[in-house]
Amino acid sequence: MDRIKEKMNQLNLKSEEAQAKVEELQAKVKALEQENLAKEQEITSLTHKTQVLSEEVEKLETGIKEAKATADESTHHGTQNESLQRRLQLLEEEAEEADKHLREANEKLRQTDVKSGHYERKVQALEKDRDQWEAKYEEMAKKYGDVKKELDDFIAQMGNL
Question: What are 101-125's pLDDT values in tens digits?
């Protein structure tokens, strides 16, 4: 009788531990999903920034081409030529700066993609662990029910004696 009670207590304890582990894993999954959502938002932001910078680079390159064409046409005007050369130099510096920003944004986007893939794999592993713990919990609950039924039957038989 004491062994059965001890066994039931052990099963109860295991069941409670399994439930606690399930809750902990569910909290981890939720946290990772939120982190994944934040990373996806960052990817979207970086993608938009990349697009904006690409458009800016195109505008600046167009400006450089126009400035070069204008500079070539007005070579006979010394002051105007110097002005255009300064403008061209500024546009080239802006284009280089925009290109640098574009490369940085692309690198951040690549890193974020890598991290996102890592977190997705982590979420999948945690979900698998959670499913295993839930299965163990259900198995323990079934065993607990079976043992409780056996104990009740045993008590009933003892009462009949």
Answer: 889 989 988 998 898 889 899 989 9
At 1 the three-state DSSP class reads coil
Residue bearing tokens 């939720």: 30
Percent helix, strand, coil in the chain, to 5, is 95, 0, 5
Measure Cα distances from 148 to 14, 122, 155 in Å: 15, 38, 10
- CA-derived radius of gyration, the chain: 35
Contacts of 14 (CB under 8 A, 6+ apart): 140
Q: Which residue has the tokens 């059965």?
A: 4
Name the residue type at position 72: D
